[in-house]
Write a structure and sequence with these properties.
Layout (H helix, E strand, L loop, with lengths): L11 H27 L4 H47 L1 H14 L4 H25 L9 H25 L5 H24 L3 H26 L4
Helix pairs in contact: 1-2, 1-5, 1-6, 1-7, 2-3, 2-4, 2-5, 3-4, 5-6, 6-7
């Protein structure tokens, strides 16, 4: 009985956007809250700063991801248009080009040409996009999906330090937010690594280290300012 295989590459697009968004949401919002709280600000000012960071960050992530992935999609479309034109104007050259690709991978020349003819007869543009340009249905750019995933994951990540700040006792906001955020960052690193097939411990340590550094620096700046925001 045939079984469908699940590959990491099938979810690499949304996974990258989601992990990046959640990580950025936790780090940037927790750092902002830690900095404001360390400046001896009121609980109300801390919460306003956290909520503002959540909304602004989510919108910024969505816009940035959409623009970035749209640029990638435009480049892919330009390459496909060029390839479509070449297939129409010089099909024999494109056939040999595809056969040469297979020969370079170890296929016998006559067989490579035969396979190329069969594949091009079925869908010439698709096979050239995959083999020559590296563009396939699994890896093609999807701007809207990436933007929504980034915005949603940022908001979810940013909600953690905001909620912790809401229920933290006055004077202890920085410590509570930092601790909770580091735990969430470690969990995020582990989940992202497992979903992506990477080393769990290395990914967890990397994410936690940079998050801790960012929060420590902003808390230090807020503490040194010593003024209410």
């Amino acid at each position: 009985m045939a079984m469908d295989e699940q590959h990491v590459v099938e979810r690499v697009g949304w996974l990258r956007a989601a992990v990046l968004g959640a990580n950025d949401g936790i780090v940037s919002t927790a750092s902002l809250i830690a900095g404001v709280a360390s400046a001896n600000s009121s609980q109300n000012a801390i919460l306003i700063a956290g909520l503002a960071g959540l909304v602004a960050g989510a919108l910024s992530m969505a816009a940035g991801e959409y623009v970035s992935v749209s640029s990638q999609r435009d480049a892919e479309n330009a390459d496909l248009a060029r390839e479509r034109k070449e297939l129409a104007e010089q099909p024999d050259f494109e056939l040999q080009e595809l056969a040469d690709i297979y020969v370079a991978r170890g296929v016998e020349p006559s067989l490579a040409r035969k396979v190329s003819q069969q594949l091009m007869a079925r869908d010439a543009l698709a096979v050239h996009a995959r083999e020559e340009l590296g563009i396939s249905e699994l890896t093609t750019a999807r701007p809207i999906t990436a933007a929504l995933a980034s915005a949603a994951s940022f908001a979810v990540g940013a909600a953690v330090p905001v909620l912790v700040a809401l229920f933290s006792p006055e004077g202890r906001v920085t410590w509570f937010v930092t601790a909770a955020s580091l735990v969430c960052l470690a969990a995020l690193g582990a989940v992202g690594a497992r979903a992506g097939g990477a080393n769990v411990w290395r990914a967890t340590l990397r994410v936690t280290f940079w998050g801790a550094l960012a929060m420590a620096l902003t808390a230090a700046i807020g503490h040194l300012s010593g003024t209410s925001v």
